[in-house]
Amino acid sequence: MKCSNCGAENPDRQKFCGACGKEIIKKQDVIEQLQSPSQIQHFMQSHQFLQSEVINIHNTLRTIERTILILLFGGILGFLLIWFGILTLQ
Ligand SMILES: [Zn+2]
């Protein structure tokens, strides 16, 4: 088993490199992890969750933006109505 960090040869059962001390990662283990359906499913779910979170935040921001615009427009309209009311009363 070759060390992925320094390339030194190590016994197959050794978990850490005898030359540099870094953990030896077996390529086969990584491939098996990626190929297991639960791992892929978990990754997909977390990815979808993140996507939906981003969409949720975006929608919330749009709703707030719209609410502010409606309030602003309503305020201006109300102000104009009062102003015109004062003008017509005089
Ligand atoms: Zn090493």
Keywords:
2 helices; binds zinc ion; 69% helix; 90 residues; mainly alpha; 0% strand
Please, could you describe this protein's structure?
- The mean pLDDT is 84.
- The chain has a domain at 36-89.
- By secondary structure, the protein is an all-alpha fold.
- The protein is 69% helix and 0% strand.
- Zinc ion (ZN) binds next to loops.
- Zinc ion binds at residues 3, 5-6, 8, 17, 19-20, 22.
Cofactors, ions and other ligands in the entry: zinc ion
Order of helices and strands: HH
pLDDT < 50 runs, ≥5 residues:
none
Radius of gyration: 32 Å
- Shape label: rod-shaped
Number of helices: 2
Number of strands: 0
From the helix content, strand content and strand pairing, which structural class follows?
A: mainly alpha
The end-to-end span amounts to 96 Å
Mean of the pLDDT scores?
84
Give the helix proportion (percent range): 55-70%
Strand percent estimate: under 5%
The biggest beta sheet is recorded as: none
What is the topology?
Layout: H1 27-35, H2 37-89
This protein binds zinc ion.
Brief rundown of the structure:
The chain has two helices and no strands. With 90 residues, it is mainly alpha-helical.
